[in-house]
Amino acid sequence: xxxxxxxxxxxxxxxxxxxxxxxxxxxxxxxxxxxxxxxxxxxxxxxxxxxxxxxxxxxxxxxxxxxxxxxxxxxxxxxxxxxxxxxxxxxxxxxxxxxxxxxxxxxxxxxxxxxxxxxxxxxxxxxxxxxxxxxxxxxxxxxxxxxxxxxxxxxxxxxxxxxxxxxxxxxxxxxxxxxxxxxxxxxxxxxxxxxxxxxxxxxxxxxxxxxxxxxxxxxxxxxxxxxxxxx
Length: 231
Description:
Elements: H1 10-16, E1 24-26, H2 30-54, H3 56-62, H4 65-77, H5 81-86, H6 90-99, H7 104-114, H8 128-152, H9 159-188, H10 191-199, E2 201-203, H11 204-210, H12 212-230
Antiparallel strand pairs: 1-2
Helix pairs in contact: 2-3, 2-4, 8-9, 11-12
């Protein structure tokens, strides 16, 4: 079988033409990634030890209840530590400020999510769902820490307060477990978001689709830097 000059078969096109990787943009620095990993580790140990304490099947399988209680108490006290250490990073503090700001585009994002509107949603570096989750889980962690301390150091409060603390602690812990399952599920559905937290960078097309306002801000900064270089 002969070919005319310049022609190429399907196999030739497949072997000679390689898809170029999509351009990437920096999303998270080292501090932000390590804070997230630290939170993941401490919260994971805390939730796992709580499950062993409250589920009879797991308690029987693991045994050593006193050790599990100590692991749960220590991991609970360590919950705020990754964030407190992260405050030394300027980039992490900037991310906290972003998470604490809720603008009109965030309200529009939430309305779109709640009504299951399929149209593209506008978001900054963090979308409204991530902001709500961060605020809720931070508050829940502090309440769990406070009620846990009352349960651990029984001399800190009278019996009625300790009973109330136990009730709040147990039910809030259950809610945290459910919310964490939802958070992990959402992460599993978005491989590029996970890659961004793991490596620190994401594909530019993904950033434009999911976090357009943030990408536009970065592009303005890049243009400003280029202008300064040319001067």
